[in-house]
């Protein structure tokens, strides 16, 4: 819906350890150390050694593969102007979060003092 600003600096995500994955009916929250969170209400793809899994609101059972990311550290994060956020982890997994709704927020990234709404 909102996309990401061209050239957005997401370097604050690099080095963050994923310490919690919270699953709700219409939301998955990825909580990292240093009080950084990404709350997803749109959809995401998780690419790992087992293949690709896709989560979208209401599909709670498809969130389970994200638990494999617990304890992993972010090695790279990049955003695209269309709102796609790609996060690569230390185990070579990647999480691709899309700006998948034209009417509603798809995800929020929060760190102390800042909230980025997409």
Describe the structure.
β1 and β2 (28-32) form a beta hairpin. This protein has strands at 18-23, 28-32, 36-40, 43-48, 51-55, 74-79, 85-89, 94-98, 107-111, 114-117. Helices cover 0% and strands 44% of the residues. The chain has one domain (11-117). It is globular, with a radius of gyration of 13 Å. A 5-stranded antiparallel beta sheet has the order 1-2-3-9-10, with no helix packed on it. The model has no long low-confidence stretch (mean pLDDT 95). The protein has 118 residues and is mainly beta. It is built from no helices and 10 strands.
Task: Name a few traits of the molecule.
5-stranded antiparallel beta sheet; mainly beta; 118 residues; globular; 10 strands
Give me a quick take on this structure.
The chain is mostly beta strands and 118 residues long.
